[in-house]
Amino acid sequence: MMTTQQVANRLVELCRQGKIGQAQEELYADSIESVEPDYSPSKSAKGKKAVGEKGQEFAAMIEERHGGSFSDPIVGGRYFSAAMMLDATFKGKGRMTLDEVCVYEVKDGKIVREQFYF
User: In the chain, which ranges are continuous DSSP H helix?
Assistant: First the structure.
């Protein structure tokens, strides 16, 4: 079973390679909960399938990706966080830079909760 540090490192590694779908399939628990702020255009979701669909809906809003980054993770107990930046042109909204902090909870070697702050 992977430690929180190992899960965090693997998530960041895959996200930096643009393999977000693979990261979700490999690291997310079936019962994953993905929590967005109330003002987010994306809605919160529960369950691996629903969270995957939420990610696909977000990706479909992107017209062109110009760049992005994931910070190294900071781990504390069962939790870790990473800062994420995305520079993209969104359909009907123009070019925007999104900066957020992502907080993850790990249980039994899998991510059981992710929450986004921006």
Answer: 4-16, 20-27, 48-60
Q: Is the distance from CB of 115 to CB of 35 less than 8 angstroms?
A: yes
Q: In the chain, count of helices (H) and strands (E)?
A: 3, 7
Phi, psi of 16 (to 5 degrees): -65, -25
Domains annotated on the chain, with CATH: 4-117 (3.10.450.50)
| Residue ranges in the chain whose pLDDT is less than 50 | none
| Cα distances (angstroms) measured from residue 104 to each of 32, 33, 62, 66, 78 | 10, 10, 24, 26, 8
Q: Is the pTM of this model over 0.90?
A: yes
